[in-house]
Amino acid sequence: MLYTRRGDDGTSGLFGECRMSKDSLAFDALGALDELNSLLGICFVKAHERDILDINKNKADFMAVAPILRSSQENLFIVQAQLAGADKSVTENHVVEVERMISDIEHHIKNPNAFVISGATELSAFLDFARTVARRTERTVISACKERGLAPHTMQYLNRLSSLLYALARVVAQDSCEQEPSPKY
Questions:
Q1: Is the per-residue pLDDT at 28 higher than 70?
Q2: Could you tell me the pTM of the whole model?
Q3: What does the pLDDT look like over 58-96, one tens digit per residue?
Q4: Residue 127 lies in a domain
Q5: Is 84 helix (H, G, I), strand (E, B) or coil?
Q6: Is residue 167 within 8 Å of residue 102, measured between CB atoms?
Q7: How many domains does the chain contain in total?
Q8: CA–CA separation, 104 vs 179, rounded Å?
Q9: How many CB atoms lie within 10 A of CB 89?
């Protein structure tokens, strides 16, 4: 059954805890993580389509984006489980892996020396959108951490995730040979 009716009074439960109000910081953070993960799912589908096209074109300097996004989704489930009270947590290895991915991408792209206007491609625009949702999610999780406490690597991971999404947006735009204009102010 997809509903239990237990939440009709505005409460819900976490692992091994009594029921709490659905407007608590923990549920706000869990909702933000769920939203981000769902948006990464859209990015994954678009990236998978792009990756297959580029593989079929035998592009020499090709960087697969879909596997990176799927890994990020898996890690967000760990963050959600930890926040919900499960015995799971993001580790230092998760943070190091994201930092390695960002470094690999930095060697692949020309890093813009200015802000860029999002929207060079559909996927790069979705990745930029995901980056902004990741930043908002990070802020929401920080608030929940003050209430519930989380492992320090979780906060580091969330901070790096938005940088990873920024880098992926740049690589996707660059690989498509689309120019990303800077704002004229």
A1: yes
A2: 0.90
A3: 665 668 899 999 999 999 999 999 988 888 999 999 999
A4: yes
A5: coil
A6: yes
A7: 1
A8: 21
A9: 17
